[in-house]
Amino acid sequence: MSTTTQMLKGLLEGSLLALIAKGETYGYEMTEKLQEHNFAVVSEGSIYPVLMRLQKNNFVTSILRKSPNGPKRKYYSITDEGLEELERFKEHWERLSMGVFSLLEEGEDGNDDVI
Amino acid sequence: MTMLSKEAEQFIIELRMYLLSKGKNEKEMDEIIVELEDHLVQAEAEGKSVKDITGDSPREYMKSIGEELGFDARQFIILAPMSVLLILAFLMFTPALWGDFKLSKIGLWGMGIATVLSFALYGFLFVKVLPRFFHSKGFYIITGLTYLIVFGIFIIVEFLDKNPFFIATPMQNNLIVIGCIIVFIIWAFYAKTWITILVPFFMSWGPIADRLIPAHMNENPFFITLAITLFVIITAAVMYFIYRSSKKKEM
């Protein structure tokens, strides 16, 4: 459980950065977009601690503005440092996913051979 | 405009109390709470529940938020002495206004212990107990009982309080009253609340009446009953007014 959570956290960080890089957005919209992409988040709220960390690391900035609902809404946009971090994440992810993917493929082939 | 469900509201209160009790930075805290409220309003409008947002364990979720918030030492350092000042002001205000402020050894120790006790009791209550009862009758019953217990402790101390080593002159009494009023006003500005003005205001009714009304009227049972009735009615009216205005703010 905890390794999955840790892994998810790292992936969530990169995915949120990617979402924010596409244009200014806010928390609820981000969870909707994650769901559109079938991103398996543990719970909707789990994006907020991650967003807080992104902001602390200066990868994103935020601004409070009035929302149509009445209460204030926090809008996020990406910084230059955030864009750099996103590139790093993409590279990392490509290498990692390629490795895991080819490993799993090989396993399946192996199974096929046995049958 | 949309309103939060009871569960969502309760979760927000629990979260705020949890973060407050951990001495977290208030500005950061307000920000995440505004954000979560906004999220909850939209999620609930689409038929989702609080658990969809927090996951199975709201407590764990609160912890994960808390870990990202900074501990605010400065806020803590300011708040602690300010709270002590406020309590002292509350303790000294009425006796000074009655014109018989005095200090004794038992009084000092007793009041000190009673203050620490009530601090602990209220702290425990606000953080651990009350958030769970927020929307039930239990909330008022528990608050009322705690108030009675704390009040009782102070009465017992007052009763044991003999042999004062310091008795204030009328001039000193007035100075203490002014000092207390300054503390109340500073607190009202600092915490942006009317409570530290309203409560002393009601506390001062009796003593002020005692100073202004001639003695023969003061002992007449009719006037005593009248005064108590008036006091209760006005207090109830103000409570109702505060309750209503807080309801309005939520909408």
From TrEMBL, chain B:
The keyword Ribosomal protein does not apply. Gene3D superfamilies: c-terminal domain of poly(a) binding protein. InterPro entries: DUF1129. The chain crosses the membrane at residues 76-99, 106-127, 139-160, 175-202, 222-243. It holds the Pfam family DUF1129. Keywords: Membrane, Transmembrane, Transmembrane helix. The keyword Transmembrane helix applies. This is DUF1129 domain-containing protein. It comes from Oceanobacillus indicireducens.
